[in-house]
Amino acid sequence: MIQDLVVYALYIAYAIAVLMTFGLVLTWVERKQAAVMSDRIGANRAYLRIPFTQVKLVWWGLFHGMADGIKMLLKEDFRPKPYDWYAYMVAPWVVFTPVLLVFAVIPFGGTLVPGQLSPALAGWFGERSYPMQIARLDAGLLMVFAFGGVSVIGAMLAGWSSSNKFSLLGALRAGSQMISYELVLALTLLGLILIYGTVDLTDIVRQQSGTIGALPAWGIVYQPFAATLFLAAAIAENKRIPFDLPEAESELISGYFTEYSAMKMGLFMFAEFIEIAIIAALFTTLFLGGYNLPYMHDGGFTLPGGREIAMSHGAVVVTQVVVFLAKVFLLCSFQILIRWSLPRFRYDQVLKFAWKFMFPLALANLIVTVIVVWALRA
Predict the structure, then answer these.
(1) In a domain, 345, yes or no
(2) Top-confidence residue, 328 or 89
(3) Is residue 24 included in any domain, yes or no?
């Protein structure tokens, strides 16, 4: 139906706009947050001048991200002489595209009923309702891992196709590191799957809308240890400090994308910042109740003691979207805080940390979860 196409086209446009905005804003957040932590002013040089005046709009350095984007679009696209042209051209898109696709299965709100937003929409949409999620898949969590695994191929293609020993070394590091931490990610989430009994992300969020006594029934309450392991492994998957060995500027220049310039290099860098937002969105969905607040439902709030606070459907939709974005932004800032707080590991330490520390802890957490779930259901 045409109504369904319109709604899902709006969802896709919203998702792309949100991710692109996060990618742009997070470059500014990283600069300013690093400056604050280093007792510096930070990015404050780029500006826009109001025509025919001497008024300069600096806006705390927000224009630096725009200037970087324009610079990358206008730079000359250098290419190495001995290289595999097809793999070299495809690799940035193989890294960038899966990052966007992951957001398709993440619910960013509850249920949208367009007919309840205004009388004009009621006549066209009728009683149709739509989950605020681009692709409602029963195996949504499995799709996250499927898309996440594809980006490994892009990094390895980029390093191999460049015919550069530093790029190839970065690609090998990226492949071994991402495969190692992918296993840790899967083990940390198996405990949540056992507790909630589903891999449908929408169902997982709905089951977190209740409370456990005075605490919200969020995944981080059920699995605090798994939440810590998940965040550490996800940062390693994104190849950010302290796990940035595939790039490691002081060792490998820029790692697997050393031979890239202009917007191809921009795609690699932009994918990294968008993945920060994706990690935050996944953590929010799995461990922080997603778009919901404690005691919130589709009709408003039901507070302890039975008190009801009714809200219109439009107010509920806006609140859920804003809550989701606020949680995601705070987690993005936390990841950047980690990036500017910790030193880089050595490469042998990165793999030892995965296999000799995080893997046994994730396995122990899973075993304890299995025993507890079995005992409670017996």
Answers:
(1) yes
(2) 328
(3) no
DSSP H stretches of helix in 300-378 = 313-339, 347-352, 359-377
Closest-CA residue to 317 (of 149, 110, 139)? 110
Hey, which residues does 182 pair with through a beta bridge?
none
Instruction: Tell me the per-residue pLDDT of 259-268, one tens digit each, with 9 for 90 and over.
Output: 777 777 778 8
Single-letter amino acid, residue 108 = F
Strand partners, 212: 215
Strand partners, 49: 56
| CA atoms 83, 87, 91, 93: torsion sign | positive
Domain extent, residue 308, equals: 82-377
Token couple for 333 = 């800032």
Tell me if 266 is assigned to some domain. yes
As a whole number of angstroms, the distance between CA 229 and CA 98 comes to: 23
Total domain count, the chain: 1
Whether the predicted model's global pTM rises above the 0.85 cut: yes
Whether the per-residue pLDDT at 368 is higher than 80: the answer is: yes
Residue 337 in tokens: 């805080």
**Tokens 């917007």 belong to residue:** 263
E strand or H helix at 111 = strand 111-112
249 lies in some domain: yes
